[in-house]
């Protein structure tokens, strides 16, 4: 009888371990939610929806896209911080929300609250203008024009681009009029109508690459932009700053390793999928890459430190309402 009881107990324990292992190996066993920190119709949203379709096939579960715009992607990350569902909710967004957001304002999240599953795209942010401006489509000409015309207007979208333009203004002794806008949908009409002289663009300019309605003055990527190779980088223009953006998938820090690994495998497959490549490289004109968790994490940490140093040089965070 004693041996029978012992055998039964061991069998029960083995079954319990087996169920736990199966549950871990079965991830995902229910639908997932992909949170986008920007509004519908922008380049991040367009890319996320194709990414979700590919991931559905790779993961074998529906992937529902939810837009939660606000605070340059910060609202979505606040939601992610509070998530306890072990990777079933994940965010797709830009690295600047992590590297600069918590430095610029008080946030409900910090960089260490997340794991950066993988980077899948290199951003192609830029400083842009419109057709027919008196300074043409040259960065040097714009600087000369802005020096001679105090109040030259600049449309900002994010805390990071606001810092960059403040840095440039100090270096070049410019007196600009700053116009806050909400995303590319808010910026584009101002540029195209001529109501604003120049602006930050996170990717909206790619839609005007063929028409030439939104010339690029300056690349904010580490290298020159794929679709606008004539525009110099910040460093080529003489500014010691590299705000290169990575579009990255993030999960809460407490997400199990096995779930992170499963998502990473699916994301690597997505970067090789023709649908994702087509929408990213041919439509929004951004290079597709696959950057593993360790590389992304180290890159973001290094960038955060460089922004801290730049803020010290500027004497604090620029006032977005100036």
Strand order of the largest sheet: 2-1-3-10-4-11
CATH-assigned homologous superfamily of the largest domain: Bordetella uptake gene, domain 1
The SS-based structural class is alpha/beta
Can you write the helix and strand succession as a string?
Answer: HEHEHEHHEEHEHEHEEEHHEH
**CATH class descriptor of the largest domain:** Alpha Beta
Low-confidence parts, pLDDT < 50 over ≥5 residues? 19-24
How many domains make up the coordinates? 2
What CATH calls the topology of the largest domain is D-Maltodextrin-Binding Protein, domain 2
Kindly estimate the percentage of residues that lie in beta strands according to DSSP.
15-25%
Give the overall shape. Answer: globular
* Distance, first to last CA: 83 Å
Q: Which value, in Å, is the CA radius of gyration?
A: 23 Å
Q: Biggest β-sheet, characterized?
A: 6 strands, mixed
Strand segment tally:
11
**What's the CATH architecture name of the largest domain?**
3-Layer(aba) Sandwich
Provide mean pLDDT, rounded.
89
Number of helices: 11
Helical content stands at 40-55%
